[in-house]
Design brief:
delta(3)-delta(2)-enoyl-CoA isomerase activity; EC 4.2.1.17; lyase; alpha/beta; 11 helices; 10 strands; 264 residues; three-stranded mixed sheet; 2-enoyl-CoA Hydratase, Chain A, domain 1; enoyl-CoA hydratase activity; single chain; 47% helix
Length: 264
């Protein structure tokens, strides 16, 4: 993507870079030392970047990327363990849910450039995107069940609609990982490209969309999607169960086992 364009602006917030290149807003997760694991601050900054684009007619398209080699490892599990053992849990949940609400209420075409791993919310956020490009080496996994948790991000509603119940069950309930080609076959990845080329290709798609009549695009996009209220209702239901599960014996044991393995 032409980041050097004279009219591009870059704003760095913690581990997030937001840059406007002509009519395209690019949101880049930049926390390579943690495989772009998403912190509370990152959730808030991503929400702001999406929300502030809504009433800006100059922004015609939004691209979400993790840069080269990785998309995101999902929620920062250190935050998770603190929440699951603290008796709290609401702050993490509310920041993630605020981000998901921003995705639901977003009216701009949304493109994801996935160059590497997409774990947990890294995969479930893709069901809110309109066009997804993945590197050949990308992998998609939602290991909620292994942590004693339930799916989030309205994925329990959107994944079966996209790929059918059986594939959604294998991914969301059994925790099976999908390759880029399998994700394309399942219907939530549009195009598989060479590693390192996802952002450039996403830029081309965004420019194609920007060349279309804006109002017709917005109306058509809205027709294709479930009503926002239906999605937010499902997100709330999932979040309620997710928060309950965080304090379950299953989840606490799974997290402790995970961190013990990590230390070995």
């Amino acid at each position: 993507m032409n980041r050097a364009a004279r009219d591009s602006e870059h704003v760095m917030t913690g581990h997030l870079i937001v840059s406007d290149d002509n009519a395209i807003r690019v949101i880049t997760m930049r926390r390579p030392e943690k495989k772009n694991a998403i912190t509370r601050d990152m959730y808030r900054a991503m929400s702001d970047a999406i929300d502030s684009a809504q009433n800006d007619p100059a922004i015609r398209c939004i691209v979400i990327t993790g840069g080269s080699g990785v998309f995101t490892a999902g929620n920062d599990l250190d935050d998770f363990l603190k929440d699951s053992t603290s008796g709290g849990g609401a702050p993490r949940a509310s920041d993630a849910v605020t981000f998901l609400y921003s995705l639901v209420h977003n009216t701009k075409p949304l493109i994801a450039a996935v160059d590497g791993i997409a774990i947990g919310i890294g995969t479930t956020m893709l069901f809110h995107c309109d066009h997804v490009l993945a590197a050949r080496t990308a992998t998609f996994s939602t290991p909620f069940i292994h942590l004693g948790l339930v799916p989030e991000g309205a994925s329990s509603l959107l994944a079966p609609r996209t790929m059918g119940h059986q594939r959604a069950f294998a991914m969301l309930v059994m925790g099976r990982t999908l390759s880029a080609d399998e994700a394309r076959e399942a219907g939530f990845v549009n195009t598989v490209v060479a590693p390192g080329h996802t952002e450039a290709e996403a830029g081309k798609v965004a420019r194609d969309i920007c060349a279309l009549p804006a109002e017709a695009v917005a109306l058509s996009r809205k027709l294709l999607k479930p009503p926002p209220e239906e999605l937010t209702r499902r997100i709330d239901r999932e979040s309620h169960l997710f928060a309950e599960r965080l304090h379950s014996e299953e989840a606490i044991a799974a997290f402790q086992a995970f961190f013990t393995r990590k230390k070995e």
